[in-house]
Structures are given as structure tokens and as C-alpha cells.
Amino acid sequence: MLTKFSVKNYRGFVDKIEWDLSAPSSYAFNQNAIKNGIVKNGIIYGFNGSGKSNFGLSIFDIANHLSHKWKKHDYYVNYASAYNHMAPVEFEYSFKFGEELVLYRYAKVSRDFKGVLVSEELLLNGKEMLYKDAQSLRLSDEFSLTDIAIENIKQGANNISIVNYLLGSVPLAKDHVLLKLRDFVENMLFFRSLDNREFIGFKEGGGNIEEYIINNGLIDDFEKFLKEISGQDFRFALPVPGDNVLYCIFGDVRIPFMLVASTGTVNLELQYYWLKEMVNASFVFIDEFDAFYHQELSYKICKRLFEGTNQLFLTTHDTFLLSNDLLRPDCFFIMNNNKIDSLCNITDKELRLGHNLEKLYRGGAFDL
Fold first, then answer.
1. Interatomic CA distance for residues 80 and 364, integer angstroms
2. Would you give the DSSP letter of residue 91?
């Protein structure tokens, strides 16, 4: 699981911003939101322009050089902060895999719309496994690389990730921590649906969602989902061979779903798809997940999302979700002034189950 993340000089974050998920409070309710002493589920709030979307994207920077899954094609446009655009962007991730604690740091610059690594460091339980910058390269003896191989890596001009090199070139035990790191990153998922649908990670490429529903025999299940979540009654036509579009039946008329569905309902189709697909996702970040939803619909979807085993976080402006019925004060985060912290850490009040978090938030009780 991801326990801590920080980034510096990325887009709007010219100064370092750090997110700590490793120190939840001792609330006795909604304990399913915490797993192995780490925050598993959460919701992030912040004013427009506070950086919520960019923060989510920055977390997924690691997927751009350790994962072979889907990437955002324009990710490296406007990469470094305009205040210090010639300096590298610095990332730091802390992970916990069982009893193993992994600290992974690296720095990148953007050149020719690509990310170029300029330094990289990985520690396991506080012990250095690898380190590389422009002048030096250090590798743990356990990798058994020859002096010639090490020198070739050190002098290489292609700035490859040392982690990726080791994963591709060195025989590793099946439970090696680098393989655990790779598997975690390969199964990270970021998605949103605003002006355009886009996602990062988890899958090799995009696809037709309605074709997915048809080919997997999920038409009846999708009907049931829409009814349970939004109260809408849709009746879909049985597909014929070659169909890749869902048709709704109105009397004797067949009309494509996309022509009759509201913006929010179309977004529900995307949410349904990812609920099915992300069962094995390691870390999920959904940006503005409820931009087109009624508040009660948002609540129901959150309930469904947080039932899973994924480490999963959302961004929203909907304060209706600020409720101890859904999560707990250490799982709601505020982003402001280049900082992010949980509600219980940014108030003098002792927050309890009976507190109305939404009312407190609107009353200015949380200051960051």
C-alpha cells in the first residue's frame, strides 16, 4: 500500500507538498476505511485551483517509467512549475508490502515531451538498494552485477530507470520487493470523466465500454446497476452479432443509449465499467468523480466504491459526502496553500461520531 507521497516543483506545487496516509487516528467506527494501519479510502476537498487534479496526476508519475500500461499522452506538457521550470521535479513514495518498507525517490525533467530521469534512489527497510545521479551509481551486492555492467549503466546516455533495468535484466526471487513494487505500480488506476474521458495505468489501452458490456454478457447487470444506483429503469435490446452499441427499447423503437442518457447517466456507464474492471487495482484515484451526479447518487457510489479492497481516493466539491456515516475524520482531506491534511489534524475540536462534519466545514472549523 502507499503510505506516504510527496512532490516538489510539479506544475502548481513549486514547494514540496506531502501526503501522509500512515498515521490514522484511533476511531472505532468505519474501520474498513483503514487497512493494516494505513488509510485505505478517502475523499479530498479543496477550492478550485488548489491543485487536487494535479496532485492526483503527480502520484501517477511513477507509472510513466515503471509501468507499461496506458499513459496520458500530453502528461509532460506543463510539467515543471513555471516558477522554477528549469529545475527537476522531485518525487518521493513510501510503500508498505507486508513487513517491507520501501522508500523510492527520483527526480525528472521534461525534454521533448518525455520525462528524463536525473536521479533515482530506492531504500528497503532503511537500507539503500540503489542510487544513481549524474556522477555516481551504487547498487546492492545482491544484484551481482559485474563492474563492466555497472560502468555501462553509469555511462549510458539514455537515462533509463535503474529499477526497470533490474526488473528486466536480473533474475529475482518471486517474492522480491522490486517485483512487488512493479506489480503495485502496474495496477494503479487514475480516471476521470469531465470534458473528455481519460485514464492512466492498469490497462494496456482504451476500449468501447458498451462493447465490453455486450461481449461480457453484462447487459442485465448494467440495467440492475442503473436501477439500484440511480432509480432509472432502462430496458436494453438483446444484441445481435457484431453489435458494439447498447440500444434502449421504447415500445417498438430501438434508440442508442447515448442518445437518451443524460450526462450523469453516461458517466454512470463509465463508473460501472471501472467498478467491474478495477477489482484487482492496487491504488485508485478518481478525479471529480461526481461532477455530473446528484448528491444522493454520489453517496451511493461512494458506498459501493469503498466496499472494495482497493486503496481508493476521490476528489469532489460535494460537502454532502462529508459525513461520519460514510467515512471518518482521518479519511477526509483538505488541500489548500500547497498542503494536504486530514480534518482531525487541522482543527482544535475533538471530532467524534456524532459531529456534523459538513456543518463544521461550512462554518470554517478546518483551517489549512
1. 33
2. E
**Which stretches of 21-155 are assigned E, i.e. beta strand?**
34-35, 38-39, 41-46, 89-97, 100-111, 114-124, 127-132, 137-139
**Is residue 364 within 8 Å of 352, Cβ to Cβ?**
no
Which pLDDT band, with edges at 50, 70 and 90, does 72 fall under? confident
Query: What are the angstrom distances between the C-alpha of 63 and each of 37, 168, 284?
Result: 25, 16, 13
d(CA 47, CA 190): 21
Q: What is the pLDDT of residues 154-208, one digit of tens each?
A: 776 567 899 999 998 899 999 999 999 999 999 999 988 755 556 666 665 556 8
Cβ–Cβ under 8 Å, residues 314 and 302: yes
Q: Count CA atoms within 13 Å of residue 18 on its CB side.
A: 8
The C-alpha atoms of residue 100 and residue 84 are separated, in whole angstroms, by 35
Query: Comparing C-alpha atoms, which of 178, 170, 257, 179 is closest to residue 222?
Result: 257
State the pTM of this model: 0.91
d(CA 295, CA 318): 7
Looking only at the bridges linking them, the beta strands covering 2-8 and 17-20 are antiparallel
Q: Structural domain boundaries of the chain?
A: 2-202+281-362, 211-263
Find out if CATH 3.60.10.10 is the number for domain 2-202+281-362.
Answer: no
- Which amino acid makes up residue 272? Y
Q: What is the pLDDT of residues 265-310, one digit of tens each?
A: 988 898 898 889 888 899 999 998 877 788 888 899 999 999 989 9
Q: In whole angstroms, what separates CA 255 from the centre of its chain?
A: 35
